[in-house]
C-alpha cells in the first residue's frame, strides 16, 4: 500500500469538528501508529464560513462534495452529514469510486443496509460505523472481531443517552417525566423535538445494526416492537426500587433462543445487581452474552462531539491498517430461523392500574388475568385519600405478550378502572 | 494468502481444552468468518492420554513440540502451557520460524516483553495476547485499535478474579479475609497457594501489559508499588461503605499526569457510584480514560476455561484476517517522561489504628500527621468495652505517600498504639 493516506470529511458539524480537532490534537499519535502519512485533505460542508472553534486550513475547506468523491487521491471518505439524502447518494458514490467509508449515520445504515453493504462488497472496499452505536464506546469492533469466536446469544443495550439521562434523573430525584425532559432540553441533552429519542426510534436504529453484527440478520424497524419511556412515572420507578430492588431502563434487546430471535425496544425493569443498572446519566452500555465468553459489557459516552469523533478516527485507523481485510459484518451464516412476533414473547410484567376503591375490584381484575393464564406474583395497593382513585401495582409470573395485551385491553374497559393501565416488562 | 490456515496448540490443560472445545463447537462460524479453511492441526502436551472431556482426533495429539514448531505448514502457534520456561523458548522458536503466536501467558510477557516483541518484529509476524489480561473481555484489542485515536490518560483495572471474589464476599457478608479465602479455595476460585493473587502479583503482571498498550512504556514490576488485600478487614469495608459511600477494590492503576506516570497496585477505596464498584465476584473490569473518548469500561469474566478460550480463538481469527498488519503494541512514541516513585504519589488516605483509650491520644496522633502536612477530613472513634483497645478511623485530605508512610511509622511506635496501623488509598 502507498505510504500516504488522504481522508475527506463530508459534514463539518459538531462531530465533524470533533474529527478535525482529533486530527489536530493527535496527528503524531495517529501517524506513528499506522506508520503512514495520514492527511485530512478535504472538509466539505455547505457552510464553510462559520467558525467551529477548531483550527482548519482554509484550503482544505470546500462546498463541493465532488472535491472529495471525485478526487482519486482520497482513500477514505468520512460521512457525518446525517440524514438519508444526499448522504446515501454520497456514500454509494464514494464506495463505487473505490473509496473506503466511515460513517456515524445509524438512521441511514438501519434503513439502507443492504444497498450500502452490497456496494462496499462489490467494490471490495470497507465501510466502518463504530460511531453509529454507542458513540465512542468500543462496541462494534469488539463484537465483530474480539468476540468473533462466539455465537452471540443475547444483546441488551442502553444506547440512547437522552432517554437514559431522563430515567436516571427521574430515579434519583423522584421527578416527573415532563419536568425532567424540559430540564434535559435546557441542558442540551434532549432535542427541541425529542420524539426520536424518547419514543425509542434512535435506540431501534442502533439495535438494527447490533442485530446484524451479532446475529447476521437484518431486521427492519417495522418488524419489531419499539416503545419509548413517556409512560413511565416516578411511581413505577419507586415501586421497582422498593418492592423489586430494580431500576427502569430503556433497553434494546436482541436475543436468540432455539433459532427464534426476539428483537425489541421498551422500558425494562432491571435488577439493581445487574451491571446495566449502573449505566446512568448520558452514558451508554451494551451487555452481550456469547456462547463461549459468557457475559461482557462495554460502557462509555454514547454521544457527544469528542467521544463520537474518537470512534470515527478509530475506524479510519482500522481501515488504514487493513485496507484489504475480508469484509465480514457479523456471522456470514445466521443461526436465526425466524424472528419472533412480539405477541409470542414471554415476560414477567409489572402492571400499574388505577381504580375506584370498591368491593370486588381485585377479584374482577385477577379473574381477567386468570382467563389469559396470567398468574400474579404480588399485588400492592397504595393508600390514598378517601374517595380518590386507587393505584394498584401488580407483578405477574411469566406470560405471553398477546395474553397481557388482551387482558389489559379488557381491564381498561372496566367501569371502575380510570385511565390507561401501564405495563412494563421485567428483564 | 493461502486459503488454508493451520494452527498448533502447545498446552492441553484447562484453557487448551477450552480452545479445542471452541474449535469443535464453532468450527463453521470461524471458517465462515475468515473465509478460509482453518484447522487445529496439532495439539502438543506431555500428557496426551488423560481424558479432558473434549473431543479431539487422536492423530492431532503429540508429545513432541517440534511437531508444531518445525512444521512449515503451521501458521499460528497457541502457547498455553504457562510459566517462563520452556514457554519462552518455544515462543521465540515459533516466532523465529515465521509463525504467528497467540498466548495467554501474562507472567512471561510481563517479564520478557522486550525479547519477545523484538523477535516478533524481526520476523515480521504477530503476537497476540488478548487472553493475558481480563480473560475473555475484549480489552487489549479495543485499547490498541478502537481507541487508537486517543492518548490514554488513565487505566483502572479490577483484573484479578480471586481477589475481587474475596473482597466482594467480605463486603456482602461481613466476613473476615481468612474465612472467605478458605471458602474460595474450596470452591476453586483461589489456588492452594493463593499468594500470587491475593498479594497483587498477578494484577501487577497484567498492569505491565496494560501499561505498554496504553502508554507505550514497559515498566518492570520491581519499579512499582504492589500491595495485596490481606490487611483489609470487615471493619475497613464497613467504614468505607457507611461513612464514605464507597467499597474497597484491588485496583491496578496506571495514570499519566504531565508526563509523569503513576503505576501501582493496591486496595483502593472506590465510590459506590463509580462503575468499578459494580464489578463484583469473579468478574473483571477495566476502566480507561482517553483524551478524546473520555471514560470507557470493559467488563466480563477475567478467567476460566471458556472465556479465556474465547479471547485466544478471537486472536487467531484476528491474525488470520490480518497476517500483514503493521505490528504496533501501544503508542510508538510514549508520552511518558518519567515513572513517578511511589513516595511521590499523592492520595487521600483512610487510616485504621488501634490505641488504648487514654487522654491525649488523638492530640498526639494528629500532631504527628500535622508534622508531615497531613490534614484530617474526618475522625471516627469506635465504642468498645471499657479497658479494651479502641479502633480509630481517619480520612485525610490529599497527602504524599512518603509523608504518610513516615507518619505511620512514628504512630506505630507510640506506646499507646496497638498493632499495625493500616492505611488504604482513596480513588
UniProtKB/TrEMBL annotation, chains A, B:
Its EC number is 1.1.1.3. Its cofactor is a metal cation. InterPro entries: ACT-like_dom_sf (IPR045865), ACT_dom (IPR002912), Asp/hSer_DH_NAD-bd (IPR005106), HDH (IPR016204), HDH_cat (IPR001342), HDH_CS (IPR019811), NAD(P)-bd_dom_sf (IPR036291). One of its GO terms (molecular function) is metal ion binding. Keywords: Amino-acid biosynthesis, Metal-binding, Methionine biosynthesis, NAD, NADP, Oxidoreductase, Threonine biosynthesis. Coiled coil: none annotated. It comes from the Archaea. Pathway: Amino-acid biosynthesis; L-methionine biosynthesis via de novo pathway; L-homoserine from L-aspartate: step 3/3; Amino-acid biosynthesis; L-threonine biosynthesis; L-threonine from L-aspartate: step 3/5. Gene3D superfamilies: 3.30.70.260, Dihydrodipicolinate Reductase, domain 2 (3.30.360.10), NAD(P)-binding Rossmann-like Domain (3.40.50.720). GO terms for biological process: methionine biosynthetic process; threonine biosynthetic process. It is an enzyme of class 1 (oxidoreductase). Residues 350-425 form the ACT domain. Belongs to the homoserine dehydrogenase family. This is Homoserine dehydrogenase. It comes from Methanobacterium paludis (strain DSM 25820 / JCM 18151 / SWAN1).
